[in-house]
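Supplementary Methods S3. Input chains for the assembly prediction are listed below.
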Amino acid sequence: MAKMGDWEQKNLIHELKLGMELAKQLQLHLNSPSSSREAREMLVQKIQDSYQKVLSMLSSSSSMVDHQTHNAGVGIGMSESPSSLNGSPRSEDSDRDLKDTEYRDATKKRNCMPRWTKQVRVNPGMGLEGPLDDGFSWRKYGQKDILGAKHPRGYYRCTHRNVQGCLATKQVQRSDEDPTIFDITYRGKHTCSQAPEILPQTRQPSENQEQNTNINIDPHHFYQQHQHQQTLQENKLPSQELLSTFRRDLKVITQDLDSHQTELQFPPFHFPSTSADQNRVISPPMVDSTATTFMESFSPSAFMPPSSASTSYFSASSSGVLHHHYNYGSPNQNLQIPEATGHHHIISAATSATNSPSIGINDFPFGNVEFDPNFTFDNPGFLH
DNA sequence: CCCATTTGACCTTG
DNA sequence: CAAGGTCAAATGGG
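Predicted structure tokens for the full assembly:
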């Protein structure tokens, strides 16, 4: 996992090129009176991110192991074979012992799984119910009232858990104050082939979100498709998931990859809505194949908390189908990541029609959120 | 009838 | 021990 293989190298180069591209864009912006200040700042931010990414890549490739053990003293992990877990989620109820141990292992692993948080804001004015779907299919397995929180927290796990042993899970909690904001905590990385880039694999039409299959790896292509989709309005926002994953993988840095990808290849985008907040958000369809590739190529490793917390806002309105394929030698690799870092992003979900079947009222998984029709959206000061 | 969600019990963690 | 997280039987929708 740690060595810099061709892939990483490629990514590195790719990233550098990206940075260059961004710089060029910035230059254009500087010369263009029409460019907004936000847009420029955005670019600057992205450039910085790009640098950071590169740096992290470089540093990580040389010293990952250390990080791992180092981190939080959770040195465990990594090696065990999750396979046992995966294979059969749980034994019958009969065996206590077995169950216990299994449980425990799982738990342990759980602890060392990467964890990152994202805040998604659903824009009331828009499609409302459909907050974004991150491109993965999840199955709810529990809900719990949390102490102090007005809203219950929903627990989701990857739909393919049993089949592929994918241990990714996420927790969704609606913010107390602002019902349009959801805190989503992801844990573990998807090892399933859910968002397979090109896997023609057997996709069942029935499933709502299968997205991605037809996407190409070619970034441009990808982008185009997205645009397209956008108009269609259905979809999910892809990137965040990726990003998250991505950053997680990058261990150290990662801070805002998201944002940067977001626009890389589509500089001047203009979005329909003009609400104030929207403007401050980055709205392009964020998908980046770049990210994807990126992340794929990285294997997990330890990550260290970035020196500065990063926050990004997105306006999620587009779909996302991101696909990432993974090429880890073994699916289990990701379990090795030691500690979690907390990254927070706020995504502003503008819309998104949901195809999710159910629309829950009290829970807000991703595809179903409901809010106050009357809610007015004024943009709270986002954080920096 | 199948499958995702619901929900209360059970288990882990701090 | 309380709070949080997960399991799995029951429930409900398609």
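The radius of gyration of chain A is 20 Å. The first strand of chain A starts at residue 115 and ends at 122.
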